[in-house]
Amino acid sequence: MAVCTRFNTLLQKKNIDKFLDENVLDLFHQIGALDGTPSFHFTGSIIPRSFDLSLNPQGRRPFIIRWTPAPCPFLEENPGGWQFTGIKIYIDALKSMEAQPDGAGHRQKEDELRYQTKLVRLAQEEIVRIKRDHKKSEEQLRQYSEQIINILGSITDGFFVLDKSFRVTLWNHEAERITGLSSAEMLGNNLWEKLPELVDTETFKSLQRSLKKKATVSFEQYNERFDRWLEVTAYPSAQGLFVYFKNVTVRKKQEAMLELEKKVLELNSNKKTSVQTIVNYFLKGVEKIFPEMYCSVLTLDVDGISVRHLSAPRLPAIYSHAIDGLPIGPQTGSCGTAMYRKEKVIVHDIATDPLWANAKELAMQFGLRASWSIPVLNAKGGVLGAFATYYKTPRSPEKVEQDVIERAANLIRIILVNNLAEEELKISNERYMLATKATNDAIWDWDIVAELYFWGEGFYDQFGYKPVPKVRTRKFWEMHIHSDDRARVLKNMEKFIQKKDKGLWLEEYRFRRSDGKYALISDKGFLVFGKENKVMRMVGSMQDITEKREMEKRLLKQELNKQKLIAQAMVDAQEKERAEIGKELHDNINQILSTTKLYLELARNDHKERMNLIGRSAENIQEAIQEIRNISRSLVPSSIGDLGLLDSISDLVESIRTTRAIHVEFYPVGRFDEKLSDKEKLMLFRIIQEQVNNVLKHSEARNLIIELSLEETGTRIELNITDDGKGFNPGKIGNKKGLGLSNIMSRAGLFGGKVTLVSSPGEGCKLRVQVPVL
């Protein structure tokens, strides 16, 4: 029994509590006194693969019972426990029978045989039952294992299991696919040791909190290693944590795009924000969400055949300027072709695609290898521009990327269409206001059906009435016409309406102001027709010509005196100007030319000094020319104030182009003339003049690019002048700056500006001037 007790203790330690539905000790007590020796030795911690126990019951034949332990995951009371299966009984030699007399031995033998037969039969039946149960258990275990495997395999999320030490005990196939880490790499390893970049992140803190507080946690985090957004949920268990995670990068990017689109539409609703500012903001946002994209927006020029650069935040400026102004066509890159065909163009590889045959060197110079473009069309199918994305590697768009570029192109269409509509409305309003001011008219719109008038601001300003409801009635207008004029005016208007005249209605009459005085009015209008040629409205304008008539009378009296005064003033001015010019010519230029004439006469007779005298004559003539130029400049005002900064620079560029000494391009961005004072404009113009002269004299350059841009905030202006000349080493100049560069720095310094010079031998030169706008 001591052996059985030890045996039972071992079974209990190992959570083995079932054997033929009986407790082990109870079974042994039913068998009777035992004197058996187990065929194994155990220490209380190791369960052998089988148990053999020899038994010698009193008055019965000895036999051996063999048990085989097997795991049983289906026990409800003790999950994870064990059960015994595969029982076999072996009968020992019948030693007691051999020691008996023949008769007694024969009877005892028969009894023993009957007992043995019964015992064997019972044992066999029990064995059959146990084997059946064992087979059933094995089948259930197999099914359960397959079910677990199928469940884990069917989980569409990444799934892994951690023990309490954060060692990975399970890592499913989806986890392998999302992370690129195999289960062989992860199983048995500490999660933080395999993924040290997660330490001190939201993942680390959340999983620690879930294990410590036994609470479910859910969170989202961007993983730089996998370049993905992951949604993670952790469930605590008795053994550690069950962690589910899935790739939500597409959703996060879609959410980011949606948020970006909302902000862009908000900007677009602000009339003070320029279209370039809005598009720049949008493209920068797209590039932040999709870092591999290089976005660009081109618009179609008013000529309908060439493209214009609008925005490309990350593309090189030289590339953007190079394609600005290129024509559209059937094989003109991605954007030019998309606008020409009015359809999407996908270029997998710029190096080999025939659409880029004439421009691939330019694109590949900056590492651009793929380009996709969608034309931006208005409601009538007209081309407004194109949205394009560039990539550094040859590739075609995936489904997500196709959706993105189509959404982006649609938003660009909304921005451009809205901008055009606002520009047209703005121009229309400006024309209306200018026309109103120019004619001093009070605009009116009479709704004939509703019998209501709409008066423009000019009506209230001219006649002093307030915009109250009664003023909008037809009766109000009629009763304020002078009684001597009313019948005539109303009769002519009614006649005009009845005839459905397509021309212009004209009348002059007196109209009473709010102060009771009458103004002489010139009124004109035209009819607006609806369906079936029905008269719906009449639109016109009232002009107060009272002062005009009085002025005509006064002008008749003053005209002669005025003409005399004007004529006298013109004569006096001309005489004064002539006197000043004559004095300048006599005192300076006349002396120079007289000396020149003397030199030439001497040269005619003095052969020895002839060349010297001719040279002096040439110098004097050049000096005379310069003096004449000075006189001309004193008579003609500076072009900056008259033409504006942009037009003045354009004139300068054109004058350089005519010399054919160098190819010059000028790219302005912003409304400078509205922001800058005349002094600031002159400073920038002189800096450009100075640097252009430096380039022409010293650089040996073939191309020159002038860029002038006003920042979106309107607080700083930036000037860049870039040439492809021989360049120089700025460090070797030191304090020996030429007069031209010194002038540039001093001019910029007067306005708080900063000058930066970037150059190296053989690499050309770039002058950057940044000046705050006060």
Give the secondary structure arrangement, pairings included.
Elements: H1 2-13, E1 16-18, H2 24-31, E2 51-55, E3 63-72, E4 81-91, H3 95-98, H4 102-154, E5 158-163, E6 168-171, H5 173-179, H6 183-186, H7 191-194, H8 202-213, E7 217-223, E8 228-236, E9 240-247, H9 249-269, H10 275-289, E10 294-300, E11 307-311, H11 317-323, H12 333-341, E12 345-347, H13 360-365, E13 370-377, E14 383-391, H14 399-439, E15 441-447, E16 452-455, H15 457-463, H16 474-479, H17 483-498, E17 505-512, E18 518-529, E19 535-544, H18 546-605, H19 610-635, H20 639-643, H21 645-659, E20 663-669, H22 672-675, H23 678-699, E21 703-710, E22 716-723, H24 730-733, H25 739-750, E23 754-759, E24 765-772
Parallel strand pairs: 1-4, 20-21
Antiparallel strand pairs: 2-3, 3-4, 5-6, 5-9, 7-8, 8-9, 10-11, 10-14, 12-13, 13-14, 15-16, 15-19, 17-18, 18-19, 21-22, 22-24, 23-24
Explain this structure to me?
This protein is α+β, with helices and mostly antiparallel strands. 49% of the residues lie in helices and 22% in strands. The chain has 25 helices and 24 strands. A 5-stranded antiparallel β-sheet has the order 6-5-9-8-7, with helices on both faces. It has a 5-stranded antiparallel β-sheet with strand order 11-10-14-13-12, sandwiched between helices. α18 runs antiparallel to α19 and α23 runs antiparallel to α25. The longest helix has 60 residues. The protein is flat. The relative contact order is 0.03. About 8% of the residues have low confidence.
